[in-house]
Automatic annotation (TrEMBL):
This is Glutathione S-transferase. It comes from Bordetella genomosp. 1. It comes from the Bacteria. Residues 1-83 form the GST N-terminal domain.
Amino acid sequence: MLKLLHAPTSPYVRKVMACAHFCGLADRIEWLPSAAHPVQRDGRIAAHNPLAKVPTLILETGQALFDSRVICEYLAALAGDTRLFPSAGAARWEALTRQSLGDGLLDAALLARYERTARPAQSQWDAWRDAQLVKVEACLAEIDAQAPALAREAPAIGEVTFGCALGYLDFRFPELDWRARHPQAAHWEAAFRALPPMQATLPHDPQG
């Protein structure tokens, strides 16, 4: 049994679990509790990952894999799935670049969120947060431009990452109302979100 140190609100954990569902491996993963935080290290994670970040996957051998990019490709390889990670050629580089774009959107969104939730009020820097949201908006514009060419079924890792990134904005940044400015991305996301692996991994906050 594979073991995953996770947080139910993490979009990177969602990306891993969505890939596990697409590959048919979700029932082979045991979820281990953790309390990942940008400031307060959780020793349960740090025992396996010096960065103390989720997702961290523990193999049956005890070896730990991180981050989400490595774990997702490992799961695809384990399942013999060549769709999520094309093996070579232009399709591979396109999928990996889209993954980087989606991860970059998430990195910026998380930094913007941490500026409000993890930093003391007297130390918060509005210009820093605003700069992160500029990056988010630039990523959204690029996803919107690519949306007509994105797969709605049988996705590669790029589409999975986009779906998780846009879902995270809905979850944590509803005030951005990104759909109003990016209708093609919104149209694609609505169809992609309906796929069973995306429905099975919708984010939720256990604290309400």
